[in-house]
Design brief:
Elements: H1 3-14, E1 21-28, E2 31-36, E3 40-45, E4 52-56, H2 67-75, E5 80-85, E6 91-96, E7 108-113, E8 120-125, E9 136-141, E10 160-161, H3 177-181, H4 200-210, H5 222-234, H6 240-303, E11 314-318, E12 325-329, H7 336-380, H8 383-395, E13 399-401, E14 404-408, E15 414-417, H9 421-431, E16 437-441, E17 449-451, H10 460-472, E18 482-488, E19 492-493, E20 504-505, E21 509-513
Antiparallel strand pairs: 1-2, 2-3, 3-4, 5-6, 6-7, 7-8, 8-9, 9-10, 11-12, 13-14, 14-15, 15-17, 16-17, 16-18, 18-21, 19-20
Amino acid sequence: MEGLMLAHTLAEVQALLPVRTLGWAFPDETTAALLLEGAGNLVFNYRPPQPVIYLSRERIRGDAHNPFQRLLVARVRGDLLLAEQLKLDRVAQFAFSGERGFVDVPPARLLFELTGRNGNLLVLEGLPEGELSWEGRIVAAGREITGSRNRFRTVRSGGQYTPPPPYDKLDPRRMTPADAAALQHLPVGKWRERIDGLGLTLGAELVARAGLPAGTAPEGAWEQVWTALQSLVSDPSVQEGTLHEGAREASRQEKAAQLRKTLREPLEKRLSLLRNQIADVDRAVEGIGTAAQERTEADLLMAYQHQVPAGASSVQLPAFDGSGDVPVSLEPQLSAVQNAEKRYTRARRREDVYERLAEREPVLRAEYAEVQRDRSALEDAPLERLEALAKGLEVGRTDRSPFGAKYTSPGGFEVLVGRNNKENTTLTHRVGRSTDHWFHVQGFPGSHVLVRSGGRDLQLPDILFAAQLAAYHSKARQSGNVAVDYTRIKQVWRPKGGTGGQVHYTGQKTVYVDPELPDT
C-alpha cells in the first residue's frame, strides 16, 4: 500500500474521530479488525509483502490466533483519538484512550508499518493526551525483527521504537505549478522518485492519467502531468490495467535490486583488494625516499669509517656537498661498516619492492577505474542487462559446498573436489555412496574427486572432466599426460592405521589427461 493510498484511508478515519471502539476480531493470524461505532471495521492486514489497511462494512469475526493478537485485545482499548501518517511515508499511528474499570487499561498506541516485506504492526506505550511522537517503548510486535534477520534495524518487545529515517521529497498535496514545472525535464515514469507518496503502482497510474510515454520527459506538456497528479491526490484509485502494470513493474524492480546486490558484492571485494594494492604502491614510493637517505648515510659511514668511535649510538659526519654535518644513528654493537651494510641491504629491499610494484601500478589503476565504471553502470542498468551479467557471473563461478569445491560435469552430474585431507576423508567415506565414482591421480598426492553418479555409468566426457580436475588438484599439476585412476566408492577403503586422506582401492581404470581445469 503506497503513501497516497494510506493518506486517503486515514482521511476517512480522521473524519470519525474521536470514535468509540467496540472490540477486536481476527479472521486469520495476520489480520486484525477493530470495530468502530457507526463506521464498520478498521482492518489491519499486516502480512508481508503487501500489508494494507482499509475500512470495511462487512461483518468480521474470529478469535485471537496468537499471543500478539491476544495482547491487542487486552492492551489496545478505549476510544480511538488520533490517526496520523508520518509525512506521506507508509507509516501510520493510532492513539487509544484506554479504559477505566476493575483493572484500568492505560492509553496505548498502535503503529502500523506498511513497508512491504518489512511490514509490521506494533503496540507502543501511550502518550499524554494532546502529545504526538513517533518514538516510544515497544510493548509488543506482530513480527520480532532481530539482528539475524535485519542487521540495520531491530524491532523487539521492550525495545525502543525508532521511525524510518527522514527523506526529502515533494508533497503532492502542497506542490505548486512551479514545483511541477521544475520536473519537466524528468521522464514521467521517474516523477515518483521525486514526489512523496507515490510507489510503482501509483507511478504507473500517473503515467496513464497523463497520457504520455513513461520514458519521455514532458517538457512543455508538464501541465498534463500536473493535472494528472492533482487528480491522483483527490482519488488515488488505480485502474485494473495499471494495477497489473504496477505489479509487474514492482516485480521487475525487486528482481533488479536483488541482481544489483548480487553483482555489486564481487565488484566491491575487487575494489577493496585493488585499493590495498595501490596503497602498497604508494608506500613503496615513500620508501624510495627513505632508501635514498639510507644509501647516503651508508656512503658517509663507509667514507668516514675510521672517524666513527666504537660502541657509539650516533655520530655527526660531514656531508659530501659541504652543507654541514649529518647526524647518523648507529647500532652500538656493530662496526661502522656493518651499520653501512645494513643500510645498503634495507635500501636495496625498498628499491626492489618499488620496482616490482611500479611495473604493476598502471595496470592496477586502470583496473580500479574499470571496476568503478562497472559498479556505477549497475545502478542504471535495465533488468535484461543485469540478467545477462548475472548469467555470466554464474558461468564463471566455482560453487562452494561444505564438502569441497563443486562443479557440474557435461552429463549433469555433481562433481565434488576435496580441498584438504579432512574434505578428502569426508567425500570418500561419508558423502560418497557405494555406486558413485571416485577419481585420484596415480602416484602423486592430490585431491579426491567424487562424481555423484548414483549407480549410472559415466560417459567419456564426464570421465575426462573429473580426471582433469583430479590432475589439476594434485602434485602432478606441472606434468603432462597425467595418469588418473577411477573406480566405484565401494572399492575404496581406508588402510588400518592410515593417515587422513590415505586410501587403498581396487578395480580401477586409468585415463590420461593434461592437468588443467576443464571448461566449467
